[in-house]
Design brief:
Shape: elongated
Number of helices: 7
Oligomer: single chain
Order of helices and strands: HEHEEEHHHEHEEH
Helix content: 25-40%
Structural class: alpha/beta
Length: 214
Amino acid sequence: RVSEAFATMGEAFAAVAAENESVLVITTSRSFATNWLAGRLGAFNLTRPGLAVRLHVSDELVDLASGEYDVAIRGIIDPEPGHDSRFLLRQMVTPMASPVFLERHPIACPADLLAVPRLSPDDEWWQLWFDLFDDPALCGARGSGLRFDSQVLDGQAAIAGHGAAMIFPFMFREAIAAGQLIQLFPRFASELREFWVVVPEHKRRLAKVRAFRE
């Protein structure tokens, strides 16, 4: 009976190990997943046809120590100790709007933004950007407009012409290239944080993790 029990345990551990190496679990924010990562996972799968990719999308930070996730891609200020963190890119935001919106609401200077609909106007990103200018009128600026809790929704609403949005251009490169979004002040962008690829220390040597990170 003891031998049978150990055999059963051995089979269970073998199954877990096999699944662990055949499934890659990635967690990242909604904006990054929707606007950049999702469209590239197919190409990654072609290089690793035996590897299933599970994408966990949430703007809430998760506990990588739980062992449920293999890789996190996050916009953070400083990487946490105890993880293998690799710098990916800087997150810069700047006001953008659609050509249709700009036809109805000409914007020549930053102060003009106070008089037009702004998407998620109470978001801290707006004030961080206004702080780039030495203009008392922009201090503590408030405004009217639709409010969202996702950059994806802000961007789509801006493309639809519903307001000016504070956008991370990297996430909307295709829309910018197609002329659906226009950067209002190309010389001015506010740096918020950096995107890092974060891996739990005990998983950094796994073949699937190395392949994805590369």
